[in-house]
């Protein structure tokens, strides 16, 4: 436990050292997202190769880098919505081509399976990275939405843990996470909802100008906070399922007691898109 606390503290300090400067210098977020993307792809490819040997590492990295396309597109011209739409079209086209052509060009019964696994890794990693870059670089005050999406899983996990310890009796997904309970899940979601509403009530009054009434904004933030917690836990369960499927305990050994980058960001990969949705609703009046 001591090692886990020390490692977690050091990791949090490093993340803050990379995230906080992005408030003052938005393009510094690219350093953070590049590091996370490259390390996450490396860990997922290694995990997938336990079952599938033919995944192309260069093609997977190239596809993952499409997560930076919205920034490039916005730098040329266009709105945040147009830039993100281009990313979606590009990544789907890339995945379709790299999945369908190998089985056609060579006789290999595993080619289609490998291509699908490769495409899933690309979408799994590049989509939340694209969301993070879009929030920080394409939205006014989007850094706050980025921080919400990044840290909501940690808030949800902490309160879900303590609620589960104090009141947890009913298992929710025992075949994936034996210690998770319905009580912990609900507790994490409720606290995440309340804290999100309070966070944005403060932020709105200080730095963000929105197009909807204050009460509606706070209510919307509470709903999104609840949703953030739910998708955070879904992200954790998906990652746990993948690890069980390939027979590994952690995705990596970067952080003793915590695993690898994917073990820390599996939930954030689900909450960052939700935070982007909130940014679209609030800042663009969608």
Give a quick precis of the structure.
The protein is mostly helical and 286 residues long. It has 12 helices and no strands.
Secondary structure tally: strands: 0
Label the structural class.
mainly alpha
Q: What's the number of helices?
A: 12
- Which stretches are low in confidence, meaning pLDDT under 50 for 5 or more residues running? none
User: Helicity, in percent?
Assistant: over 70%
Number of structurally distinct domains? 1
What is the end-to-end distance?
45 Å
Tell me what you see in this structure:
By secondary structure, the protein is mostly helical. The chain is built from twelve helices and no strands. It has helices at 2-19, 21-24, 29-48, 57-64, 69-76, 80-105, 111-138, 142-167, 182-206, 214-246, 261-265, 268-283. Helix 3 runs antiparallel to helix 7 (111-138) and helix 10 runs antiparallel to helix 12. The protein is globular. The chain starts with a helix and ends with a helix.
């Amino acid at each position: 436990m001591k090692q886990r606390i020390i490692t977690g503290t050091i990791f949090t300090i490093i993340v803050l050292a990379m995230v906080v400067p992005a408030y003052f210098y938005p393009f510094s977020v690219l350093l953070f997202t590049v590091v996370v993307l490259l390390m996450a792809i490396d860990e997922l490819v290694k995990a997938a190769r336990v079952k599938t040997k033919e995944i192309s590492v260069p093609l997977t990295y190239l596809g993952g880098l499409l997560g930076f396309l919205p920034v490039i597109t916005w730098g040329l011209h266009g709105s945040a919505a147009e830039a993100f739409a281009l990313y979606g079209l590009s990544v789907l086209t890339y995945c379709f081509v790299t999945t369908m052509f190998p089985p056609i060009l060579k006789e290999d019964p595993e080619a289609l399976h490998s291509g699908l696994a490769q495409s899933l890794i690309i979408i799994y990693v590049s989509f939340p990275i694209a969301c993070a870059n879009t929030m920080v670089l394409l939205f006014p005050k989007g850094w706050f939405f980025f921080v919400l999406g990044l840290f909501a899983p940690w808030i949800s996990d902490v309160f879900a843990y303590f609620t589960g310890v104090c009141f947890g009796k009913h298992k929710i997904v025992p075949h994936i996470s034996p210690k998770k309970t319905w009580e912990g899940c609900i507790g994490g979601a409720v606290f995440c909802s309340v804290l999100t509403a309070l966070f944005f009530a403060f932020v709105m009054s200080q730095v963000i100008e929105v197009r909807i009434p204050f009460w509606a904004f706070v209510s919307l933030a509470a709903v999104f906070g609840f949703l953030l917690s739910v998708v955070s836990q879904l992200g954790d369960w998906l990652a746990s399922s993948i690890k069980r499927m390939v027979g590994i305990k952690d995705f990596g050994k970067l952080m003793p007691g915590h695993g690898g980058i994917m073990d820390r960001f599996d939930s954030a990969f689900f909450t960052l898109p939700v935070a982007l949705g909130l940014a679209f609703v609030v800042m663009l009046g969608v």
